[in-house]
Amino acid sequence: MLALAGDRLIGALPIYRLLYEGGTFYQNQRFRTLLGIEGDHLVAGSRLCNRGGVLLADDLRADVGEQTVRVLLQAALAVAEGEGLHGIVLPYLPAAQVQRIRRAAWVVAARDDAEAIVSGASVGVDAYVERLPKKRRYYARQERDRYAKAGWRSGVEPLAGCVPEVARLVSEVNRRHGDTVPDFLLRRIFRWEARAVGPRAVVLTCRDERGALVACAVDFVWRDMLYLHAVGLDHERLRDSFEYFNLMIYRAIEYASEHGLDRLHLGLVTRAKTLRGAVANPLWTAAVLCGTAGRAPGVRFVDGSADTGM
After folding, report:
1. Whose CB has fewer CB within 10 Å in the chain, the N or C terminal residue?
2. Is the Cβ–Cβ distance between 153 and 208 less than 8 Å?
3. From 3.30.40.10, 3.10.450.50, 3.40.630.30, 3.40.50.300, which CATH number describes the 121-261 domain?
């Protein structure tokens, strides 16, 4: 859904009717359980990098932004009604996005997960490691040293040039985590993404002496942040050199520093990420249900979510 003021794009809300979903993160059953709602819904917002929301131009007045969000949500609800669905679900919203949506519509929201953010990447990886607590500094240096001594050929490549290799390795990682998306579908998705975002899609690569891809991290560049999209690993060929953390964090910080970026978005938080300097920011999932257009804007939090700092 697009919102235009004359010829200018001022807002957008991607919507999806999910007929197939290999992973569990965006399945309707998860949303029904989390939010205590019934039926199937359109998914609205981003389905990548575990951060979503309604997109607005930066320079809009507050009242214009609120009206734009309202129009986009109403248009998405009309599509949902036309499809015989119960409404729209917006997953993985930062707190500011929940506030934006609740001012424009009546929503049901629940605390969902948390995103992992690394700040201060522009200082470079050596300075970044020096900022870590003493014990973590020691382990970070070990991880980088083991990677350096493993003999890998590290590089930065455009996604468009290595789609088949990347898809194979990402598919292997996904299968280990219960995701059933096949290689051929990942190849199609990566090709679409490469065409859509062009040079903003970069792959941090780890190749062996013969040039074969052994590990990779697919990242998107946007504003001052490098967003981790996917990690691929050939587990049988790894050399116990912390390839995963070097690609996801240390080499990503190197890339960010070299390109004037200050933050990394590492997807959903894990203890392994926070031990290496990432900070956990809470995320919410919200639903706007069909038949609520006449209700005053507001929010009903599920399971005490309102007590989590919203």
Report:
1. C
2. yes
3. 3.40.630.30
